[in-house]
Amino acid sequence: VKAKALKQACDANKAAVYLKLKDFTEAKNSCNAVLKEDTQNVKAVYRRAQAELGLKNFLDCIKDCKKVVELDPQNKEARALLKQAQAGQKEEDKKAKGLFANMCKALGKGPIPEPGKSASLGNFSDDEEDAPMDVAEEKDVPMEDAAEEKQEEVAKEE
Questions:
Q1: How far apart are CA 17 and CA 50, in angstroms?
Q2: Residue 153 pLDDT greater than 80, yes or no
Q3: How does pLDDT run across 14-42, given as a tens digit for each residue?
Q4: For the chain, what is the radius of gyration of the CA atoms?
Q5: Is residue 67 pLDDT above 90, yes or no?
């Protein structure tokens, strides 16, 4: 029991070192090692939240901060980190909103097809279903191999 507690303390301290070194992935891994044994370890949850913030995983950071506040309602550091994560998520949402707004603007451009018909990309008809396919389409083979097989078929027919 003492060995397990000592290992958890070491992993939690290792996470703190990784956070100082800005190696957020390793910090998160160390915290997860502690949390595998003790899901209620406040230090490990808080340090994982710090690592998530460093990795810009704002939603995971927010989730962990809320868990810290739930476990330790007096934890001011967790509340401050929660505000940072929420601000970061708000900024990400703003960027995404701008990106998607530009994408959506582009969607309205171009010819509008008649209802029931899609925009024509060429002269295709439903009759082409019975047309023979290329060798490459029939089998999953690279195009070079398909070309060789096609040449062989032509040579046999002659």
A1: 12
A2: no
A3: 999 999 999 999 999 999 999 999 999 99
A4: 29
A5: yes
Cα–Cα distance measured from residue 49 to residue 51, given in angstroms and rounded to the nearest whole number: 5
Residue 66 CA to residue 55 CA, distance in Å, equals 18
Residue pointed to by tokens 């370890």: 41
How many other CB atoms are there within 10 angstroms of residue 72's CB atom?
15
What residues have CB less than 8 Å from 135, skipping those under 6 apart? 141, 146, 149, 150, 153
DSSP output for 74-121 = T-HHHHHHHHHHHHHHHHHHHHHHHHHHHHHHHHT-SPPPPTTSPPPS
Residues 115-143 pLDDT 10s? 776 555 555 555 545 555 554 444 555 55
User: What are the tokens at 73?
Assistant: 């309602």
- Which residues neighbour 97 within 8 Å (Cβ) at sequence distance 6 or greater? none
pLDDT at 148: 64
